[in-house]
Amino acid sequence: GLRSQALYAELFEFPAGEWNKTRETWAALSDRMLARQFGRDAAVIALGGGVVGDVAGFVAATYMRGVPYVQVPTTLLAMIDSSIGGKTGVDVPAGKNLLGAFHQPRLVLADLEALASLSAQQLAAGMAEAVKHGVIADAAYFATLERDAGAITARDPGALERLVARSVELKAGVVAADEREAGCRAILNFGHTVGHAIEATAKFAALHGEAVAIGMAFEGRLAEDLGIAERGTADRIRRVLERYGLPLELPETATTDALIAAMQLDKKSREGTVQLDGGRAGTGRAKGPSRQLAPPSLPDIITYPSTTSHMRVHVSTFLWEENQRPINTILSTAGVDSGQIAQ
Length: 343
Prior knowledge:
Largest sheet: 3 strands, parallel
Strand content: 5-15%
Shape: globular
CATH architecture of the largest domain: Up-down Bundle
């Protein structure tokens, strides 16, 4: 360990779970570092799942105006998604990730042996982000996730290694092209606008990956209705999510008005307009926005009439390089090598 290398180290722990991703946890960890008199030459190591990485990263981003940190993710979701990209933060009663900062880790160290300790539910939650990567950026990868569901759920080492490597490559490529989410990085939010609203209304009883899976199921249907995705795409997304044991239906806590209120407070919203993001085939780098919609264009997510007076929905579409096979081409290009994310 660090101490065996004559490095001074302190272990700070906090209980697992999204409900501990709070300002109080951030403050307690920061105060403990101050009590130990750590200076700006200190570094933070985030050893754990996505919640640990987000909170520890936010501590590192704000402690003495920023100290280095290292991500050591121990869950599949953290390995392939949340540890990559520098998004850090905490939840507040109004919603998820509403306080945070961009702060890139100096290193991400993923040990696949840690996946052996995950429950089936935790493994499935991570697969939601892997499926998202396939939908938005790589049809061949999406087809692999369809084909290899048995091997992945059985935790075949080779299948898991290939999965982690490809998802990391895709996520890192998008982040490298748009670190601060000024444009194409928003494609990574597919499923997350609805997903974050579900988490908030369920008081974080659902795992993040489970909420994102439901969000992708509904946002995929919306993409079809808008002509962003070809007919049949949403059903294909739903089928692969089902293979990994992920939920697809809204929990009872997700009432119409609660979802609307949560989505309007989403950090991606602008002037009360809800932002939904999806891919669109074409040539050229990402661009958007595309159109603004009235509330009835949010099918199956919410049923109108609602007691809420009105809601505006803004859908951003992105034109990716042709070889990236985004959401509306996954039906026709399975097995084609997608190549690299455009840098």
